[in-house]
Amino acid sequence: MLHSPDNLPEPLYSAAQVRELDARLIAAGTPGFELMSRAAHAIWRALRRRWPDAGVLTVLAGRGNNAGDGYLVAVLAVRAGWRVQLLAVGDAAQLQGDAALARDQALAAGVPVQAWSECAELQGVVLDALLGTGLQGAVREPYAQAIRMVNVSGLPVLAVDIPSGLCADSGQVLGVAVRAHLTLTLIGLKLGLFTGQSADYCGELQLADLQAEAVLLQAQAYTARRLTPACLPQLPARSRSVHKGQLGHVLVVGGDRGFAGAGLLAAQSALRAGAGLVSLATRNEHLPAAQARLPEVMAAGVASANQLRALGANASVWVVGPGLGQEAWGRSLLSAAAISSALQVWDADALNLLAQELLPLPAGSVLTPHPGEAARLLGISTLEVQADRPAAARALAQRYQAVCVLKGAGSLVAATDGGLWLCDRGHPVMAGAGLGDVLAGLVGALLAQGLTALPAAQLAVYLHACAGERLALLGRGLAASDLCAVIRELLQEHAGV
Questions:
Q1: How far apart are CA 412 and CA 421, in angstroms?
Q2: CA angle 187, 145, 99 (to 5 degrees)
Q3: 43 in helix, strand or coil?
Q4: Is 450 helix (H, G, I), strand (E, B) or coil?
Q5: Contact of 457 with 403, CB cutoff 8 Å
Q6: DSSP 8-state symbol, 343
Q7: Can you tell me the distance from the alpha carbon of 333 to that of 329, in angstroms, rounded to the nearest whole number?
Q8: Rounded CA gap, 270 and 446, in Å?
Q9: Strand, helix or coil at 284?
Q10: Which residues of 161-176 are buried (b: 16+ CB within 10 A; e: fewer)?
Q11: To bridge 403 with a disulfide, which of 9, 221, 341, 453 should be the other Cys (CB 3.0-4.6 Å)?
Q12: Rounded distance, CA 210 to CA 23, Å?
C-alpha cells in the first residue's frame, strides 16, 4: 500500500527497528529479493506519477540494499522505453546478496552501468539510491561529491527510503545530504524524516509498506508516534449548568519591563482557549495596557514573591515565564512559583532561570523550551540539541520529571517514562516572536479544563501548529495574536459534546 502525506500511519521507527521489521517479514515467508522487487515497483510507480513525461532517468547507486532497489528501478525504466544511465558510486562488484542479484538483472536487461566520476553528466530524473538508513558518521567521498553534484544539478530528485546523508533517527545532516523533491520511504516511517533538518531535504514524503502484514507492524516496537486527529485527546464535555469556576483559573506570570506583550499574549491565549478565569501578574506600569487590551483578564501588579503567592492562591494553573526576564523581579516571582502546588507551565525566561538554578517543579508540570533554552537546560550547545532532538526532549523530561515540549520543525512532546510524540504540522510563517507565549497559554488553558500534562501538551502543540498552517494561506507577516481566534475554532473539533 502506498501512503500519501494525507494518510501516513502514526508509528515512527528507528533505523534499527525498521531493519528488525524487514527481518521479520523475511522470516515470515517473504524472500528478501521479493521485498526488493516490491520496493522497485513502488518507486517506479511513484516516479511515473510525479514525472510522467520525463523519459530520462539517472540512477545513482551505492553499495547497499538501496543500490539494489536502484538497479531494479533501472530495469523497469529500460523496459518502459526510457533512456537510462546508472552511475555506480563505489565498486559495483562489491555488492552482495539481493543487491548483487539486482545488479545482475540490470546488466542482463541491458541497463548501461558505469562507474561514477566527477565528469559524469546527470540527466532527467535523478534516483538517489546511494546510502540509505545505515549511514554512521559523516558522508565520505566519493559519496559526498556525488551528493553535491545532485544538489547543484537543478534536476528533479526521488530519494529511495531516505535522502542520502540524512540520519534516519535524528534528522541530522551528516555533513551533506541530498535535497529531494520526493522521498519514498519503505516498510515503516523513520523518525528522522520528520524532525531536525529533514523538512529541508525530504520534499514530499510517501510511504510504501511493501505489503507488510498488519499483525507484524502492530507487533513491532516503535520509537515515537505522530500526533494525528485520530489519537488526540478531547476536552471533557461541558454540562449545560457549567460555570466559570469549574473551568479552571490560569495565572500568567510575566511581563517585565520591555516585555509586557509576552504576558499579554499568553493570557489572551488562555482566555480564548476556554479557561474559566485568567489572571495576569505583571509589572505595575503595564496594568493600563493590559486592562485596555484584555478587559476580561484580571491583571494585577506584583513586586514580590509574597504578593504573587497571595494572588496565585486560588489559581489552579500557573503559566510562568513569558517576558519574565532574568533580573531580580523575575527571579523572585519564579521562586514563588516553585513552591506553589498548582499545575505549572514553564516557558521562556522561567526556563533560562531554571538552567541557572535547579528548582523544584510541582508534579504534572509542562516545560516548553525552544532549542536554545533546551541547550541551556541540558548544559550543551544548541547544535547538539538540534543534532538529536528526540534524545534532547527525552533527556529534559527525565531530568526535570515533567512533560517536555521541544519546539521547532517537528515539535516533540516527551513524557517522563520515555514516551515520545511528534507533530509534523505547522508552517514556516510561524517563525516569529510571541508564538511560544501563545502555546504556553494554550497548554495552561487545557490543564485548567481538566486535561493532565501529557494530553494537554499533545493537543496544544497540534492545535497551535494547525492554526499556523491555516493562517499561512494569507501569506507572510503572521502575528502571534492572530493564532488565538483560529485555535479557538480548531479546539471545538476536539471537545466533547
A1: 6
A2: 35
A3: helix
A4: coil
A5: yes
A6: E
A7: 6
A8: 8
A9: helix
A10: bbbbbbbbbbbbbbeb
A11: 453
A12: 13
C-alpha cell at 181: 523533491
- pLDDT one-digit tens code per residue, 278-325: 999 999 999 999 999 999 999 999 999 999 999 999 999 999 999 999
State the Cα–Cα distance between residues 410 and 427, nearest whole angstrom.
Answer: 10
List the grid coordinates of 288.
493600563
The whole-number pLDDT of residue 495 equals 75
> Can you give 311-369 as a three-state secondary structure string?
HHHHCCEEEECCCCCCCHHHHHHHHHHHCCCCEEEECCHHHHHHHHCCCCCCCCCEECC
Residues 6 or more apart whose CB falls under 8 angstroms from that of 171 comprise: 191, 192, 193, 194, 195, 196, 197, 198, 389, 410
| Tens of pLDDT, residues 217-252 | 777 789 999 999 999 998 888 889 999 998 999 999
The strand pairing partners of 427, in sequence order, are: none
Question: What pLDDT sits at residue 492?
Answer: 85
Per cent of the chain over pLDDT 90 is 85
Q: Which residues contact 348 (CB under 8 A, 6 or more apart)?
A: 254, 262, 321, 322, 323, 324, 373, 436, 437, 440
Half-sphere exposure of 34 (CA within 13 A, CB side): 11
Rounded CA-CA distance 5/86 in Å is 29
| Residue in the structure block whose three cell numbers are 512559583 | 337
Which 3 state secondary structure label does DSSP give 186? strand
| Strands 420-423 vs 411-414: parallel, antiparallel or unpaired | antiparallel
* Per-residue pLDDT tens digits for 202-225: 999 999 998 877 767 777 789 999
- Cell numbers at residue 264, please? 499579554
Cell of 425: 504540522
Element housing 88 (H / E): strand 83-88
**CATH class for the region spanning 244-492:** alpha beta
178 and 145 Cβ atoms separated by less than 8 Å: no
- Strands 317-320 and 343-346, sheet pairing: parallel
DSSP assignment letter at 13: B
Confidence of residue 2 (pLDDT cuts 50, 70, 90): low
Residue 412 reports pLDDT greater than 90 = yes
| Residue written as grid cell 489559581 | 315
At 95, is the pLDDT very low, low, confident or very high (cuts 50, 70, 90)?
A: confident
For residue 93, give every residue at least 6 positions away whose Cβ sits within 8 Å of its Cβ, in sequence order, or none. none
Q: Which residues contact 364 (CB under 8 A, 6 or more apart)?
A: 343, 344, 447, 452, 453
C-alpha–C-alpha distance, residues 261 and 487, integer Å: 19
Residue located via cell numbers 490543564 = 447
For the record, the C-alpha cell of 399 comes out as 531530568
Separation between Cα atoms, residue 416 and residue 272, nearest integer Å: 29
pLDDT digits 0-9 by tens, 433-461? 999 999 999 999 999 999 999 999 999 99
pLDDT at 256 over 60: yes
**What residue ranges do the domains of the chain occupy?**
2-224, 244-492
User: Which pLDDT tens digit goes with each residue over 47-62?
Assistant: 999 999 999 999 999 9
Hey, how many other C-beta atoms are within 10 angstroms of the C-beta on 36? 23
2-224, CATH topology level: Rossmann fold (3.40.50)
